[in-house]
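Residues determine shape. We examine one folded chain.
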Amino acid sequence: MISYLEFEKPVAALESRIAELRAAAEGDELDISNELQRLEEKSADLLAGIYGSLTPWQKTQVARHPMRPHFRDFVAYAFDDFMPLGGDRYYGEDEAIIGGLARLGDRRVMLIGHEKGHDTESRLRHNFGMGKPEGYRKAIRLMEMAGRFGLPVVTLVDTSGAFPGVEAEERGQAEAIARSTEACLALPVPMVATIVGEGGSGGAVALASAERVLMLEHAVYSVISPEGCASILWRTAEKAPEAAEAMKVTARDLLKLGVIDRIVKEPVGGAHRDPRATAEALRDAIGEELEKLSQLSAESLLRMREDRFLGIGDSRAKARRRTK
C-alpha cells in the first residue's frame, strides 16, 4: 500500500478509481479491460509528469518518504554475505549507523551507512538515523580496518543530521564527526559514498568525504534542513520551500556545482515504488565506480579526495574532474 504525498493526490485519485473498478468487476461478466488500461496509462503518464518536474521542496518530501528504502533494504537487494560489526570499543553500540563486511558482486567491501527504521519501534531503536558519537567512532574503526586489509569502503548516507542531544555533545559529537571526516579523507583504499535519502549537515559529510560521491535522483543533500534554514533566515519554518530552492539541495543542482559526481536514476514515482530496482541500479553504479578506482594507487586516491573537496566552487577544478 503506497503512502501518497500531497502533490501526488491526482495520482492517488486515479489509482483509487482503478482499484474500485477492479473490485466491481470481480465475478462480473462485464469486460472493462479497455477502460482499466486507459486509466492505468493515464495514471502512469500523470506520475511521470509529476516526477519529471518536482520542485526542490517536493524532492525533499520524496527523500523523507516513510516507505523509502533504507540501509537494510539496500543490503538485502544489492549486497551479499553482510556481516555486521558492532561497537566503537569506547562507549557502546549505536544502531543509527550500521557497518560491516559485505560482498558487492565478486568484490568484498566494508559497508557503512545510516539506518532510519520503518516503523515506530525500529525508528526509535535506530534513533531515526541520527548518529551519536559512538556511531561515528564505530565508522572510524571500520574504515581503519578496511584500510589495513585493503578493502574498498562503500557508504550509504541517509540522515537528517547527527543527533543533537545533550548526551551526544557530552560524549564529543563534534570531535567524532570531525575524526570520521578525517578518516574518510585519509583512507588508502577506494571509497564510494552515495546519498540515498537525506544528506543532512556534518552527520552526512562524516560518511561522505569520498573521492566519488553518488546520489539517488530524488535524494537531497544540504548543510542544514530547509526548515532549519527558514527558521534562521525568516523566523518561520513555513518558508521551507523557498529555502530548499535557494540552497540547491537536489542531485541535479549539486552535480552542476561539483558537489557530487553522478546521479543514479530512480524508478518513476521514486525509490519507494520499487526498492529492488533502485538497489540494483545503485549496485551497478557503485560497482562501476569501484572498478575504475581499483586501478589507482593509494597516493592517487588521496590526491583525488584533496582535489575534489578543495575544488568545490572552483569551475576550473570541476572541469578537470569531468575530463578524468
Notes: The chain has a mean pLDDT of 91. The chain has 15 helices and eight strands. Residues 67 and 124 are 16 Å apart (CA to CA).
